[in-house]
Structures are given as C-alpha cells and as structure tokens.
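dumping this here before i forget
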Amino acid sequence: MTTELTKADQIAHINTLLPPCVTVLGGELTDFDRDQSTCEMRFEVTEQFCHSGNVVQGGNVTVMLDAAMAHAVFATLGGFVGLPSLEIKVSFLAPTLAGPATAHGRVVKLGRSIAFLEGSLFNSEGELAATATSTAKVIRSK
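structure:
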C-alpha cells in the first residue's frame, strides 16, 4: 500500500534537497500550487551578501528569483529535472535589504524541452523589489 505525501511533507522533503547557493541565503520553499504552476520561497539574507548601504548584491537577488522560478517547474512536474538557464533577465525596482524577502515563481509555458518562467521578489516591506523572466532547458530523466 502506498501513501501519498501531504503537501507539508512534500515541502519539507524539497527543502532537504535545496542547493547550497539557496540555503546560504536562508532560502526555503514555503508553498507551491501544481495546478497554477507557481511556488513561493522565503529567504533570510544576512549582511554578508550586501554591499554599500546594506543592499543585497544583485547577483544574490538573481539567485533568489532563479530558485523560485526553477521550483515552480519542479512543482509543476512533481519532481526535480535538470533545468539549466538559457537566458535570464532581471529588473531591479527597489532595494532588497538584509533580512526577510519573499520570491514567487511561475511557469508561463512548459514545453517538452524548454520552459518560459517569471519571478517576483518582494523585500521586507512587502514592496516589489525585482522581477525576472527566464528561459530554461528542461532535461527530463529517462
């Protein structure tokens, strides 16, 4: 007899598999919606990832957006696949300071081998701080 994991169990399992580039930024998956092809991740960024004025460096903002977009694909497919980025564009709209941040990822279109993705990052004030679009290659296991 097989028992299906609860959503909370699935989230907990996924969080054990996060790569170091996400966990070092205090990242964790907090929610996903398979039907909507979306996910939410929270981050707790420390000052070591900031430059002048306690502003999170842009590459780290990109990591948070990229992680959320990738996990939207993983949620949609119900598991991990290879997902190298082919292109990513980030727009920085407001400062992201050390502390909490929330990223949302969404699959715009998922083909057999290419995914088109969107991401949004909200700073600790709940203000939209950055957006991203990405094209990624989907490498499915055989």
